[in-house]
Specification:
The protein is of the alpha/beta class. The protein contains 7 helices and 5 strands, in the order H-E-H-E-H-H-E-H-E-H-E-H. Strand 1 (32-36), helix 2 (61-70) and strand 2 (73-80) form a beta-alpha-beta unit. Bound molecules: magnesium ion.
């Protein structure tokens, strides 16, 4: 674990699929990303989901990610995980589950570049995680770290979340556009990605 309590993309647990390999081969070229919150965007938020058995995919998420990859966006997950700090599951269990999620996406031809998570919370019961972290959304730390790790052009990237804190984190990191599930439609998100792609020919496709 890093000093910040956030596991960064270089960790062994990150599934280094074809997208990640290509990304590292082109260190000088900026990429664009579709940032995805996890609970409520990828999986239905049943409350501290951390097992395959608890997982119910949000309808349309795989189709949306397919569009993203088709237009050259990298998939990056950014997720608050106060459940770790609260002691509902531990860091190892979270990582095992994150690997499983990556594998489920990969089976569908959808490589996730990296998952960033913040286990810290101001009221965590585990002292090591009791912190008002600059990584916990609405703070932008995870997005900024991802941009640094993968040379992402945040202004040409987008985020999909289901909480105001997701949207606020995107705003603070100067992500180009943020969509709120429940207010925005999947179709609008896909349309925005396609429009950005047709304009952004100076960016490297993954
Ligand atoms: Mg959420």
């Amino acid at each position: 674990m890093s000093e910040s309590g956030v596991i960064r993309a270089a960790g062994e647990w990150v599934v280094a699929g074809p997208a990640a390999v290509e990304a590292r081969r082109q260190p000088g070229m900026r990429q664009r990303a579709l940032f995805l919150d996890r609970d409520g965007v990828i999986n239905v938020d049943h409350g501290y989901v951390h097992t395959a058995e608890m997982t119910e995919w949000v309808p349309g998420i795989f189709e949306l990610c397919k569009v993203a990859l088709d237009v050259g966006l990298a998939l990056v997950v950014v997720t608050n995980q106060a459940g770790i700090g609260r002691g509902y599951y531990d860091d190892g269990q979270f990582r095992d589950y994150a690997r499983w999620v990556h594998a489920q996406f990969m089976q569908r031809g959808l490589p996730i570049l990296a998952t960033y998570y913040c286990p810290e919370h101001p009221e965590a019961v585990i002292p090591a995680y009791r912190n008002d972290s600059g990584y916990r959304k609405p703070q932008p730390g995870m997005l900024l770290d991802a941009a640094r790790d993968w040379n992402l052009d945040l202004g040409a990237s987008l985020l999909v979340g289901d909480q105001p804190s997701d949207i606020e984190a995107a705003r603070r990191a100067h992500v180009g556009r943020a969509f709120l599930m429940g207010e925005d439609r999947w179709e609008d998100v896909a349309a925005w990605m396609r429009t950005m792609s047709s304009r952004g020919r100076d960016h490297a496709p993954l």
